[in-house]
Amino acid sequence: MKFSVLSGELLKTLTKASSVIPIKSALPILENYLFEVENDNLSISATDLEISVLSKMIVKGKEDGKIVIPAKKLDEIIRALPVDIELNFNIDTDAKKILIKTDQAEYKLTGQDTEDYPQFPEIIDEKKILIDSKLLQKLINKTLFAASKDDLRPVLTGILFHLLKNEIRVVSTDGHRLVKVVNKNFECDEEKELVLPNKALNIVTKYIDENFQYIAVDQTQAKFVFENSIIRTKLIEEKYPNYESVIPTESNYTMSINKNELLSSVTRAAIFTNNPNNLIKFSIDNGELVVSAEDTDYGMSAIEKLKCEFDYSKFEIGFNAAYVIDILNHLDSDEVSFFLTSPNRAATVMPKVKDEDEDILMLLMPLRLN
């Protein structure tokens, strides 16, 4: 097996594919890439058994073949080289010996048998879903941050894609906050609910500029098809919780405020919070918001005053500062509105001015004030 490729081009492909490779696996073969050369095409595969990536690139093919290559070592070598040099791969597939040569250096690696490398099952009876690449990226970016990191509740580590005839709803939650995005620039032949792993969607965003084409799904898998790459992932098959039941249907108070001013204020106040809950207090009264935080262990505190729209008597509520910052960072509008019911009930946050084709709602659970 022989081929030549520019180091910079190979690095681009490996950098994306490496996000699938597990750092440490009970199955060591997963810590490798599968390289396959056919004519002038190099296919690079990576998998963790839940997600797989297959990327193709043009090389100077000299002899066809396939080999399993240690990912970490290859990544380190390619990253350490200049980006504009030609790499010549000369691989003895029988002895599993890999020789990488440049004009001034050579590197030797030992590969493994390709028969041991797991193959991701093909999708059976696939259904195609057509969606604009910019819309897909936007939906992922708006929701990914709120998905749970707790593997004890696997379904909450996923993102719900609820496909309807004339709209798409994308939802994520970790039990402390929830994001729901509804976009009407979408059409689908039949209603579907897909729960996609957050890791898979994070990988998809790395490939989204590669001329995304479509999504295909069956009962257990989804694949994202690009011009030169395919990302496959298992679906989370557990039923997503009834998220609508936790979204307040009405509110007693509304506060509207400049988003960037509030974001800056909360970011500064967060410096003075106590871990682990990062408690900040909102005290709102007649057109003024007071953002405050206190570190009782070290006797430090912060108080900031901001103008807002609020035509009610005094209202106080506590939030996790990090969650407020996350939510504000994922809203694009200049002004946001907080819809409040009581200090111990969830608040919802939305752009003050709504987009004609999109509704975005972010829900935030309060913290108890001392």
Number of domains: 3
Order of neighbouring strands in the sheet with most strands: 6-2-3-4-17-16-15-10
Per DSSP, the total helix count is 6
Q: Biggest β-sheet, characterized?
A: 8 strands, antiparallel
Q: Any idea of the CATH class of the largest domain?
A: Alpha Beta
**What is the CATH superfamily of the largest domain?**
DNA Polymerase III, subunit A, domain 2
- Cα end-to-end separation: 69 Å
Structural class: alpha+beta
Say how many strands there are: 25
Oligomeric category: single chain
Query: Helical proportion?
Result: 10-25%
CA-based gyration radius: 25 Å
CATH fold name of the largest domain: DNA Polymerase III, Chain A, domain 2
Gross morphology: elongated
Q: Average pLDDT, to the nearest integer?
A: 95
- Regions with little confidence, pLDDT below 50 for 5+ residues: none
Keywords:
DNA Polymerase III, Chain A, domain 2, elongated
Put the structure in a nutshell.
With 370 residues, the chain is an alpha+beta fold. 17% of the residues lie in helices and 41% in strands.
Structural overview:
With 370 residues, the chain is of the alpha+beta class. The chain has 3 domains: 2-116, DNA Polymerase III, Chain A, domain 2, CATH 3.10.150; 127-244, DNA Polymerase III, Chain A, domain 2, CATH 3.10.150; 247-364, DNA Polymerase III, Chain A, domain 2, CATH 3.10.150. 17% of the residues lie in helices and 41% in strands. It is built from 6 helices and 25 strands. The strands form 4 sheets. Strands 6-2-3-4-17-16-15-10 form an 8-stranded antiparallel β-sheet. A hairpin with a 4-residue loop joins strand 20 (288-295) and strand 21. The protein is elongated and about 80 Å long. The mean pLDDT is 95.
